[in-house]
Amino acid sequence: MTATPATSPLLACFQLGPASKRCDDPDQLDAAAPAWLHLDRNAVGTADWLEGRLGLPAFLREALMDEETRPRVAAYDGGTLVILRGVNLSPGAKPEDMVSIRLWVEDRRVVSVVLRSLKAVATLERQYDGGRGPQTPSALVAELSEQLTENAAPIVSRMDERLDEIEVEIEAGREKEVRGELLELRHRAMSLRRFVAPQRDALSRLVGTPPAWLVIEDQRKLQETADEVTRLVEHLNFVWERAAMLQEQALARSAEQSNRRLYMLSIIAGIFLPLSFVTGLLGINVAGIPGDSNPAGFLLVCLLLLVLGLLEYLIFRRLRWL
Prior knowledge:
CATH class of the largest domain: Alpha Beta
Distance between the termini: 90 Å
Order of helices and strands: EEEHHEEEEHHHHH
Number of domains: 2
Largest sheet: 7 strands, mixed
Mean pLDDT: 86
Strand order of the largest sheet: 2-1-3-7-6-5-4
CATH architecture of the largest domain: 2-Layer Sandwich
Helix content: 55-70%
Oligomer: single chain
Number of helices: 7
CATH superfamily of the largest domain: CorA soluble domain-like
Shape: rod-shaped
Strand content: 5-15%
Structural class: alpha+beta
């Protein structure tokens, strides 16, 4: 068996069917049986490979090789272009930096192109290596869509759980520590929704106007996946709104604490203002100050200030300023 050259953009190749198996050379694929060819978009010569080895027209090569894509479905003569996104679960990566997978689906062939690795694709490869992968292009698309959605759901759930923890921290008076994280959660929810919402629309269109290669059983499975993606969009909307609400609550508590401190400073200043006036008046350096020759003058002034301060306190309490 001739091995694929090391410079080949081909990441994986599988012959589909009851006895699905990995192949090393796509030239040895049985043309009468369905196949899945998975390519690396970043490899040298991928576009030439799509043209020369797979015979795809220029407009499809451009769609499969685009730098930036959004989830969509487009039907053409002979097949369907399906572009989906999955959360980035690579170590150290941000899940909201979603990774695209571009598919060209025909009756007997699926061609996929990725920029980075996807957990959903790795799961499918393990299924095929174990002899239990999807047997048709229709089943492959349905299973891949389901895997992409299942991988995204825990990310959104963890965001919601973190908001529960943040709410407790805000109630405990630690709103300053979580304000930055709330902003990050809002940004993450918005970034995920930016691609999950179009993915919902793409899957709904695929189910609503099924191509010839999509069988009824897989159409039902795709409908369930589309419904799950719809719930994900609603959950992301809820996370975004809840994060915004908690952010406003944290800001309100911070403002309330600041206002309370300023209020107390104002009360203290109000109490000491008359006292400062009396001490300032008695401290002027002119003749005729009462008690300047009285040995008990200082004690009398202190008692006067104490009585005046107590009187102000009682007045503030009566006015309910304290």
